[in-house]
Amino acid sequence: MNFGISLSIKQKLYVLGAICLLSALSLAGSALLFSSQVERAARVINDERFAPLASLQELNDHLKEVRFRLAGVLLDQMPQVGSRIHLKETMEKAPVLWKRFKGATGHLSGEGGAIVAGVDRDLPELEQFARELDKAYAGDDKKALEALLEDRWPVVQQKIVKPLDALLPSLSAATAAEAIALETTAQRFRNFIATVALLGGVAALITVILIMRSLNSGLREGLAVAQALARGELGHNIAIRSNDEMGQLLQALAGMAQNLRSLVGDVAAGAHTVADTSAQIAQGNLDLSQRTEEQASTLEETASSMEELTSTVTQNAQN
Predict the structure, then answer these.
(1) Looking at residue 1, what is its pLDDT?
(2) 37 burial class (0-12, 13-18, 19+ CB within 10 angstroms)?
(3) How far is the CA of 39 from the CAs of 31, 52, 212, in angstroms?
(4) Least buried of 62, 78, 132, 308, by fewest C-beta within 10 Å?
(5) Residue 171, C-beta contacts closer than 8 angstroms, at least 6 positions apart
């Protein structure tokens, strides 16, 4: 594999670090992206869903409280002064809440738009009802209060309260849809994070396996070469499969084995030369010994002849 052949150990470790760093950056970037999406979705839910829903719910509750207090005053169960104060607060808050609701929802279309337009058209009915109710509270006019409850309130109920009740489910459904969309986004983010983490872990594991395989292969080959050299097997074949530090070590061992083979060859050649020279010297010594023996034999013969001559001369001298 090119990864194991062309890269050094340091470069392989750099690759492993780069993979881990890239995985970490991917996870961090994904977290930032998701947080921005969540923030945007939460802002949409709050500004476009919860805020108008809360305003509409508060307005609806105030209007129903007006009717409840009116009935309570007629039954002598609610204080008239407190009910009048509540009516005043309601009529002060109603335009603000309605304006806030429309500002948050923007331009509604379809059935919702028609309901909002109808409420806008019929708001004067509510204002007229509130003025008459306040006047009846101020004059403690039970008959007027009873007439307002029986005759005028049903109109307000039909034109204002019921349409507001009809708007609440649609806003709740839109809020639920946004929440589901946010949950879907969170699920996609979790899946993406799991995928990135898995891919990063697999890539890091593969890199580690390749590095360990490269190191183990080089170490095994180097150990085999060292053991072969220790046994004197200078002809051991060294396979160099990479250019990293282990490959360089094997190259050095191969060079050392080559030098040892050359040195042993030179020593063997020198020993052969010494052996040949020793053989020649031994042969010369043998020849010299033979010549020495021949000369000794000749000297002995000469000495014998000299003795015979001396004996002959001595005999001649005596005669």
Answers:
(1) 46
(2) middle
(3) 12, 19, 45
(4) 308
(5) 49, 52, 53, 56, 105
Residue with tokens 């080959």: 221
Q: Which residue has the tokens 């990293």?
A: 244
- Judged on CB neighbours under 10 Å (0-12, 13-18, 19+), 229 is middle
What secondary structure does DSSP assign to 27-60, as a single string?
HHHHHHHHHHHHHHHHHHIIIIIIHHHHHHHHHH
> HSE (CB half, 13 Å, CA atoms) of 287?
6
Name the nearest CA neighbour of 105 among 177, 48, 168.
48
Per-residue pLDDT tens digits for 49-93: 667 778 888 888 999 999 999 999 999 888 989 999 999 999 999
pLDDT tens per residue across span 18-43? 777 777 777 777 777 766 666 666 56
Helix (H, G, I), strand (E, B) or coil at 107: coil
d(C-alpha 121, C-alpha 159), whole Å: 9
Phi-psi group of 106: left, alpha or beta (phi > 0 → left; psi -120 to 50 → alpha; rest → beta):
left
Positive or negative, the Cα torsion across 111, 113, 119, 121? negative
Task: Give, in order, the Cα–Cα distances in Å from 157 to each of 17, 28, 88, 151.
Answer: 70, 54, 18, 11
**C-alpha–C-alpha distance, residues 155 and 165, integer Å:** 15
Nearest-5° angle of CA 42, CA 47, CA 53?
110
How buried is 296 (Cβ within 10 angstroms: 0-12 exposed, 13-18 middle, 19+ buried)?
Answer: exposed
**What distance in Å separates the CA atoms of residue 48 and residue 34, rounded to the nearest whole number?**
20
Helices within 141-242 (DSSP H only): 142-147, 153-156, 162-230
Residue 137 host element (H or E): helix 110-139
